[in-house]
Structures are given as structure tokens and as C-alpha cells.
């Protein structure tokens, strides 16, 4: 079986209490999350006027990327589908507000409330899973029709 979480089980199942803690304590993951969040902030191109922005962290997990948002002077709201990851965020006393939500079901924020959004891991997982399934279905079709 693949070691990639997105190929083993949905995140709300894969990231149980043990996996959530293991993920959050990995120095490699912490470094990657921090670097990717810094890059996401560059891409957002928020005004450099010293005013904190309210950012949405979609798939915030245990709040690793949110810590980088806080370190850059921003406020944030994080959402994740894994209750275990959010519990780790609460145990770590992250500065942002976190909520249990599925990004695929809409978020219900009024227009203009959020200044920007990032998603360091969640969209990556969906993107990789889509491409894996596309490749797999293409392979199966080729085998069925002897191509």
C-alpha cells in the first residue's frame, strides 16, 4: 500500500489522533508547511501597510501554516475535515480560530469578510488524488481496449 495519505483513506479517517500528532511533530513537515505558507503569502500580494489581514486557511490541520500567518502579523480562521487534526491545533493553542468543516460543502462567509485564503495541504491532496485516479482510469481503459 502507498505511503501517501491521500491514497490510503480520506483525511477525516487517515488523520486519527496518532497520525495527527505524528504529522504535527515532524520537523520536515513543519519546515515545508512554513516555507509553502511564506510563498502563499507572497502570491497573495497583500498590501504591506502594517494592517493585519483576516485570512482563511483551508485544510488548516493542526495549525502549522496558521502559525506562519500569525508570525507575519495576520489573523486567521482555519477549517479542516479532520477532528483529530483540529484537536491537536487546540492543544497547541494556535492563535487562529479553527472549525470542523468540509471545503467541498461551501463556507458561508459573506463577501468581503475574508481578505485572502491559503490552502497548503488540502488542495494538494485533492489535486494529487484527481491525477492518480485519472491515470488509473486511463490505464484501465487502455488495457480494456488493448491500446
Automatic annotation (TrEMBL):
Residues 56-124 form the Methyltransferase type domain. GO terms for molecular function: rRNA (guanine) methyltransferase activity. Pfam families: Methyltransf_11. GO terms for biological process: rRNA (guanine-N7)-methylation. CDD domains: AdoMet_MTases. GO terms for cellular component: nucleolus. This is Methyltransferase type 11 domain-containing protein. It comes from Cannabis sativa.
Amino acid at each position: 500500500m502507498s505511503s501517501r495519505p491521500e491514497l490510503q483513506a480520506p483525511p477525516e479517517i487517515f488523520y486519527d489522533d496518532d497520525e495527527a500528532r505524528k504529522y504535527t511533530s515532524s520537523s520536515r513537515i513543519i519546515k515545508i508547511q512554513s516555507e509553502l505558507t511564506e510563498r502563499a503569502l507572497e502570491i497573495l500580494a497583500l498590501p504591506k501597510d502594517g494592517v493585519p489581514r483576516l485570512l482563511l486557511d483551508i485544510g488548516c490541520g493542526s495549525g502549522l501554516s496558521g502559525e506562519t500567518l500569525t508570525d507575519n502579523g495576520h489573523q486567521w480562521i482555519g477549517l479542516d475535515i479532520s477532528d483529530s487534526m483540529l484537536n491537536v491545533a487546540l492543544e497547541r493553542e494556535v492563535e487562529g480560530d479553527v472549525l470542523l468543516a468540509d471545503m467541498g460543502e461551501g463556507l458561508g462567509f459573506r463577501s468581503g469578510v475574508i481578505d485572502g485564503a491559503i490552502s497548503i495541504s488540502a488542495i494538494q491532496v485533492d489535486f494529487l488524488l484527481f491525477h492518480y485516479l485519472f491515470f488509473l482510469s486511463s490505464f484501465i481503459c487502455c488495457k480494456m481496449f488493448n491500446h
